[in-house]
Amino acid sequence: MQPRSRPPLVTISAGYISYAHTVLGFSAFFGALILGLCLHYHKIVKNHVAGWPDEWWPSVSATIGDWPQERSILQIFIALMSGPRISLVLLSALLVSLSNPQSFRSKALASTGILRTLSCGGWVYCTSTDLPLIHDVAMILYLVLTPVWMFISWGSLAPQPEKEARATAHDSPAAKLSERARKTRRNTAAAFFASIPFMCLFYYRHRVLEIPGAYTTYSFFEWNLIIQDLLFDLWSVYDLCRLEIHIVEATEPSPRATLGGSWWTGGTAVAVRDKAWSTSPASAAVAQSVASDAKEVDEILDSADDEADKGHLTVELSPRRQVFAFLSDIYVDFLWWTTLTALHPSIFFFSVYNLAIGGHEILLITQVFALGITLIPSLRCKLLEEPSLLVTPRSKPALIGLWALSLSSIATWWIPDPLSRLGFTGLAAGGIAVSQALSWGEAWQKGDKEVHRRVVSWLVGLALSSTAKYANHSNNPLWPFMHSGNGGKQPIGLALAGLSLIELLKRPASSTNTGTGGRARVKATKVDELQAALGMGGLLFALHTFLTDSGTMIAWTWTGFPIKGPMAIPHGWLILASTSIGIATAASRPDFGHHPAVLFFLALCNIVLILTRNWVAFLAAIDTAFLLPLVAFPLVQGALRHHPLRIMLWIWLVADLMTFFQVLTVAYAFVPGGMPFREKTWAMLAVQLLFLGVGLRQAQRSDSKTAASISHLSLPRPIMRCLIALLAAIVAVAVAVSRIRLVDTSTIIPHHAHDGSRVFTAGIQTVHFGLDQLFHDSSRRMADLYSDLQLDVLGLLETDLHRSVFGNRDLTQYLAQSLGMYADIGPSPLGHTWGCVLLSKFPIVNTTHHLLPSPDGELAPAIHAVLDAFGEHVNVWVSHNGQEETPVDRELQTKAIARVASATYPQPFVFLGYLVTKPHAERPSPYKILFEDGRIHDVEPLDSMRWCQYIGFRSLSRVAYIRVSRYTLTDTELQLAKFRVPDITGGEAPLDPSRDDKPRLVNHDHPMVRPEWWFPTHYIDRFASPSEKFSYTPWVYPRYYAPNEEEVVGV
């Protein structure tokens, strides 16, 4: 007989843990705030923009991080808070496990809570001054885990089964507490997330616009996050009050630590049996019946599938009406891809100009926010029927309204303010995410045939988007940063969008009616839902990365001159043709995507793309374009079996996070904690393939129909004919574009080819990824400027746009065609650089691409080219060195450049590069390393206002030099120099490479300066500001050069 336990000495409600946690948390932050206001008020409200009285309230970071007194208060109370915190996390996980022992939620909650607690300690005790890396990583981890923690704890931790099973239990105290926990948590979380956009807005006004007082407003929203964070955990009191902590005298004292109890030894089943935990008999019966009814549910769903596939759930339209509906859906999907591909460059326009994270990046997950809002019960019930999760007929007006909202992106091209266009683009992106979830959810209810049709229209919309970019020099004509002056066609796009929306409104109700006649969804396991989200998220990332521009994978294969592989013009049409064939195959045989060989060959193609170049890699690119459309149907079909709004939220989260991490493979130096992602494109592709494999496996396992049984799916004959005609038209247009835009090399002629002067103009400019300061594509403005200045050799920096965050664009397509120049796009995107480009009116004999040493910061690209300039070989070097923050990188990079320049001595050499140094700065600054060790001359040693860009030369005769102000084209001026190539093959003596043969500064009317060598005079403006117009700088007039008077030079 076991000894009876004694009465408890002390009984404590576990709810006190929530109270203790909250009191200590508020004491930590507000104790530091009170102390800071008393001791250092004027100092903690001051920032780099303004101080008191414009700024009169401190931010959280200034309060707790700038002074040791306040920091000590914070650290003391956070240490005291750790015990209640760990207890709160573990007891919350215990409640979840007791309520739903089969759920993974308890483990996720425990692991997330513990990791979040540790990360909090990381940024509290490791200051940004002492351990900046640990501090930043811990802070980022805490910020990332906070939404996860809130999502997992969104409802009640211990939902009452009586409330779900019996209406009579609605008034029980436990049920009331459970409902109160759910409501208070959701309201607090809503207040938390609602503050974030406003906080980002006022941070932007402070950081970028530098408006005094903006940081004070930002600070209030920052403090609100702290308050809501603490209150969110306070509401756990309504759950933890179901538990009590008893302190009793041990019946058998032992020095050994022991653990026991019904739940610990046997789980929830033993706890219920021993009456240690209460549950409803009705709930238990329901739980036991779920497994036994699963087979019956599958049979019902299969029956609904069959009925839907036979057309019993919809009324067939006439053949002509089917075609109109199909074309309307395709155009809507074209706008879907247009909005998606516009969002990322719109966001990173601000990041690039700020050279830092400015808060706009939160819009990267705008689709997640939009779908999260639709999960609010009061809104969700208007879109979905519970518990079947059917899209209701009354959601059609909302669906059409959301599609109309998606037009706000392309309809804002006329708004001058870049931030407004970004806001509307984010709004449109949220609209397309919700509308797609409802539209696809509705299609799934009608059956596999409707899902098949929608997937095909979605893929054709992608092909149309890529074709529109191919025809418009890699720019989508409907993007918000396009306009009539640079290739925009928004009025036409809006007119077609209006016709599509009218068709959707006029489409017979029977063809879009869902009601309760469609196949219903049943709740699936979280694991299945996660796997489906990973698969579709991986597919969305892959399509966005590889197929939104026909030149992206071609850029991956590029190695330079002599050309040994494909070029975007004329070979881009082959990518579009392969994509079209893949879509046609997916339309006729949707079961192909289920075959394991598809994923195997897709993985093989990715490996070949990474490891090889030129034609071999291009074959892999063509195969990738063919294979990706094949897996779309099984992945979409598998995902739509789940809650349509929630699954799309997870899909977008996966795709957006993969896009963000892809950016870090290049931008690792600008994002705290980004270094582990440096040059890890191969890892991103491996994760993408893993996700695709997980999603395909889940689709095969969860779908009761095998791949063989859905092979009979096909589009109606009128739609199939329309599809084939449309895909054929896409290929025909692509072929025509490649032929029309191919530059005839016989028309590429240097500006002074026929006057016998042998003079050429060279220039260098950093173009900031092809977006001007007004947030418009700048390729046409650049072309106009460069043509007017008669440039023959041009180096451009920050030009690698073949990434989704830059729109997968190619500046050289328009510049090369309009200027009539050869183009080398530099190291491929797999080099993980910001890019450099060489444009030349002289034939390019060969080019060598370099990745300069970069142990600390961003990778530095370089092109070493040999040009055939008037029959003589001239070496040209274009490069982009590292930033000021990485002096070791700049030193090593410049030494590498100097070695190449010195190795070509005494051959003619032109340096066009980005150094980041003051003129004549002593070593280890790059200036003397380049010009002394490289044995080249500075084009103008007296120009002391330079910092980034420099021009050097050797064995050429210097004729003229000047800079042209940036105006609003970019953030860096254009540097220009004119050189004369000696006619050595014609008998002219070579120039002494060790000296400048024209050291004397002269006026433009000097006899040694021919009028045809003059720079244009309309850029001369004594009173112009660099931001008002294009004008010469830093001098009013260009500088021209001549030999010393005692020297004789044959010119």
Automatic annotation (TrEMBL):
One of its GO terms (biological process) is fungal-type cell wall organization. The keyword RNA-binding does not apply. Residues 528-704 form the PGAP2IP second transmembrane domain. One of its GO terms (cellular component) is membrane. The chain crosses the membrane at residues 16-39, 76-96, 133-152, 334-356, 362-379, 399-416, 422-443, 530-547, 567-587, 594-611, 617-636, 648-670, 682-699, 719-737. Residues 758-983 form the PGAP2IP C-terminal nuclease-like domain. Residues 334-502 form the PGAP2IP first transmembrane domain. The keyword Ubl conjugation does not apply. It comes from the Eukaryota. Keywords: Membrane, Transmembrane, Transmembrane helix. Residues 15-240 form the CWH43-like N-terminal domain. This is Calcofluor white hypersensitive protein. It comes from Jaminaea rosea. The lineage of its organism: Eukaryota, Fungi, Dikarya, Basidiomycota, Ustilaginomycotina.
